[in-house]
Amino acid sequence: MKQKAFYLLVIFVCALLSCHAFKHPLISFRDPAFSTVTYGRIMVLVDIPQWQDGYRIEERFVELLEDNGVRALSAMKFMPPTRTWTDAQRDQVIQTNAIDGILRISIASEGKDIRQVPLETTTTYKKEKEVNRKGDTVLVDRRITQTEGGYTAEIPWRQYDIKMVDAASGKTSWITSTSDKRPLETSVVDALVHDNMLK
Questions:
Q1: What architecture is domain 24-110+158-194?
Q2: For a 10 Å CB count at each end of the chain, is N or C smaller?
Q3: Triad 48, 110, 180: Cα angle to 5°
């Protein structure tokens, strides 16, 4: 019982520390040539192999950006993954929709962490009512032993690179990176707001 209480306390403290860490903005860099440039019509382009995940991420970014007063569009809605797109065709889509910034998200690295879950055996005792041969109800001691763990777990991780590309020049105006240990979309939009990148 004491051991379980200890584990719960450790989990609670870790959760508090994690929440506190997420309050800090991402480390980002703004190109000095774009120190006064802001973006009010952004296309979100998620460049990852799993198009379903990419679409969900784009839609979430669009929602959060629009909550911050920015017109945002999902690239997949205008450039469906069922087709092959040339750079010229992409440029045409951007111009047609009067996009001033492209928020591009790509995978920098990914892998799996192998963690050993230790074997843990707990024994609890409790009293139960039981009817004996004479028909009397008596209290008897019961011992319950449970064993958990004793295996390895694979925990996937992913690191993202994020950049804002200035649509007019084609140059990168802002960069940051984050891992999937943070809420991707919220962290990035908060960083854009913090750095005054949005109109």
A1: 3-Layer(aba) Sandwich (3.40)
A2: N
A3: 80
Question: CB neighbours of 198 closer than 8 A, spacing ≥ 6?
Answer: 38, 39, 40, 65, 68, 69, 70, 192
Q: How far is CA 133 from the centre of its chain?
A: 61
pTM: 0.72
Q: Which pLDDT tens digit goes with each residue over 171-186? A: 999 999 999 888 999 9
> Binning pLDDT at 50, 70 and 90, where does residue 133 land?
confident
Q: What ranges do the domains of the chain cover? A: 24-110+158-194, 116-148
Nearest to 42 by CA among 189, 156, 161: 189
Closest to 71 in 3D by CA, of 81, 61, 85: 61
CA quadruple 20, 24, 25, 28: dihedral sign = negative
C-alpha 86/C-alpha 100 separation (Å) is 19
